[in-house]
Design a protein that fits this description.
The complex is a heterodimer of chains A (236) and B (119). Chain A is an all-alpha fold. Chain A has helices at 14-23, 34-63, 71-74, 87-111, 115-145, 159-190, 193-196, 210-235; strands spanning 77-79, 82-84. In chain A, a hairpin with a 2-residue loop joins strand 1 (77-79) and strand 2 (82-84). The relative contact order of chain A is 0.14. Classes of the chains: A mainly alpha (236), B mainly alpha (119).
Chain lengths: 236, 119
């Protein structure tokens, strides 16, 4: 993330730099850890997966002549006796953004070798993710009680349920995997694995705090996908 | 000679240092505010073009902030940034294709619901 330096090799900025990086008879992504490059490639492919879900949702919703359920009524929640539209979804959004913020700062402290702060912030991120999954479980069970199924629902077009469960389910699955890895890395940081130079994942090379940034990329991506789901599924 | 060595050392130290915490807190606050605004779009029940343009505006702003600063793309070299962003044009093409497709499907459904299907 800082400007890389390679001895005897001038790294040009901007598009000229892109051309010479790509054409150089060396690694293409200068100063980028291989794990980070691979995480980015994975996230790119994951972007396509989620895009396909959202595009199929667009096609399903656009091509039915039946009225689409109004999300701000379907996802309303009673608070103090009054139905508040999208209350739970708004809370979930804020929880996920909060955990994204703590993750970003955890990465910063990781690079500064501040083990304790990095660990506590990772733990906060994991707990935020856990809260999110819990709220999603509550939302799912509430809708299932109200009779929403992948093939039918009492509110409108029958396609609503299948898109809802598929899209939020796949996103929730990503969050759950992220939470598991966040707990594992919280342990690794608190146990001082990077100070001791223990080996990293899928490699015999020594682990390093760059792994926290790689984990952070995944976690921010989960938040990024939620931004799109929030806009297209809940607000549209 | 020793002086220049020292300068080089301090420069290298600064390069290895991370970004100030302030920038993350700023982006964090902005994300909160933007999320609040996009929630307000629903709260005040804006409809039609105003609703859709506001939703898209806040969505792209939030996505851009997360990618640029939380995911550090703003500080990465163009070789990585361009590899990641150009494939998004394929998604944009796919969206246009499927938008045309759903309009045609909707049209033919409505048409045959009224006219009745073939033999």
């Amino acid at each position: 993330m800082s400007e890389p330096k390679i001895d005897g090799f001038e790294l040009k900025p901007g598009f000229k730099g892109m051309a010479s990086d790509t054409a150089s008879d060396q690694t293409m992504f200068k100063g980028v850890h291989w794990g980070k490059a691979m995480m980015w490639i994975f996230l790119l492919s994951d972007t396509f997966v989620f895009s396909c879900f959202l595009i199929s949702y667009m096609k399903g919703r656009g091509s039915t002549p039946v009225e689409w359920p109004n999300p701000s009524e379907v996802f309303a929640l009673e608070a103090f006796g009054v139905p508040v539209p999208l209350l739970l979804i708004a809370l979930m959004t804020f929880v996920l953004i909060t955990s994204s913020g703590t993750m970003a700062i955890a990465v910063k402290y990781g690079y500064e070798k501040n083990r304790k702060m990095c660990g506590w912030l990772l733990l906060a991120t994991a707990l935020g993710g856990l809260t999110f999954v819990g709220m999603q479980a509550y939302e799912w069970s509430k809708l299932i009680h109200e009779g929403v199924r992948p093939w039918e629902n009492p509110f409108g077009a029958a396609q609503f349920g299948s898109f809802f469960f598929m899209i939020t389910g796949f996103h929730g699955f990503h969050v759950s995997i992220g939470v598991i890895f966040l707990f594992i890395y919280t342990y690794k940081v608190f146990a001082g694995h990077y100070e001791k130079g223990k080996k990293g994942w899928f490699t015999k090379l020594k682990g390093d705090y760059v792994e926290i940034e790689i984990l952070g990329l995944y976690w921010h991506f989960v938040d990024l996908v939620w931004v799109f789901i929030f806009a297209f599924f809940y607000l549209w | 000679m020793e002086n220049t060595n020292n300068i080089e050392k301090t420069e290298k130290k600064e390069e290895a240092s991370t970004h100030k915490i302030g920038i993350y807190l700023w982006i964090w606050t902005l994300l909160f505010v933007l999320s609040f605004f996009s929630y307000m779009v629903d709260w005040y029940q804006f409809q039609g073009m105003l609703r859709w343009s506001l939703i898209l505006f806040f969505m792209f702003l939030k996505a851009g902030l997360i990618m640029a600063f939380f995911m550090h793309l703003f500080w990465e070299r163009y070789a990585l940034v361009n590899v990641l962003l150009w494939p998004m044009t394929a998604i944009a093409c796919f969206i246009f294709l499927m938008a045309a497709e759903f309009q045609y499907t909707l049209f033919s459904r409505l048409f045959y619901f009224v006219v009745g299907g073939g033999a």
